Amino acid sequence: MKLIVGLGNPGEEYRLTRHNVGFMVLEEFARSNDAKFRSNKRFKALTAELLLGNENCYIVMPKTFMNLSGHSVRLIVKWLKIELQNILLVMDDIALPLGVIRIRPKGSDAGHKGLRSVIDCLGASEFSRMKIGIMGRRNIKDLSGYVLDRFTRNEQKVLPEILNRATQACECWVRENVSMAMTRYNNKI
Fold first, then answer.
1. Separation of alpha carbons 102 and 152, rounded Å
2. What does the alpha-carbon distance between residue 125 and residue 107 come to, in Å, rounded to a whole number?
3. Strand, coil or helix: what is 132?
4. Which residue, 25, 84, 89, 172, has fewest beta-carbon neighbours within 10 Å?
5. pLDDT per residue as tens digits for the range 21-41
6. Strand order in the sheet with 128-135
7. Quick one: pLDDT at residue 139?
8. Is 101 helix (H, G, I), strand (E, B) or coil?
9. Active-site positions?
């Protein structure tokens, strides 16, 4: 069993914001694999299950806000009894140029509050993460405002390709492993 968690904020007002790129990837991943999300009150999340090759995959979008994502993830991990190496978190990264993917098998939160919440609630950071660059311009004065803004029209034009590549990277991670996903998808635009 593999678990993929997309980080974002619930609600229509956040739908096309940069901070919600983790949700966008999981929506595309579910669509491309004919999976349907359902509200799961137990986990405070939208969840879907699918089969990729011989691998069962559980995909999750917490309905808690970004900075509280760990509470939902902890409930799911305990219920599934899933090992940390079978978890992939998908999230935005303001330090990376727009569309750049960076996959790692473990690491720190690097200042990302959603990732910090998951690390704190699981008591560990030895799980895979896929960071997707959202930096579309330089000299941003209000970082929190920037991540909560919607993608610009020009950014929205390239967003489908970014989401497609991130979806392929998720599938590679499930079917093969984190090393292969890193080799194929890291830093390629």
1. 22
2. 6
3. strand
4. 84
5. 999 999 999 999 999 999 999
6. 38-40, 45-52, 55-62, 2-6, 87-97, 128-135, 101-104
7. 75
8. strand
9. 19
| Beta carbons within 8 Å of 146's beta carbon, 6+ residues apart | 18, 94, 140
Query: Using CA atoms, how far apart are residues 108 and 172, in angstroms rounded to an integer?
Result: 23
- 72: DSSP letter: H
3-state secondary structure of 59: strand
pLDDT reported for residue 188: 59
**How many Cβ atoms are within 10 Å of 135's Cβ, its own excluded?**
17
- The DSSP element (H or E) to which 157 belongs, if any, is helix 153-175
Is the pTM higher than 0.90? The answer reads: yes
| Superfamily of domain 2-185 in the CATH hierarchy | Peptidyl-tRNA hydrolase (3.40.50.1470)
Nearest-10 Cα torsion for 154, 188, 172, 174: -70
CB 185 within 8 A of CB 101: yes
Helices (H), 33-152: 69-80, 113-122, 143-148
CA distance 33 to 52: 8
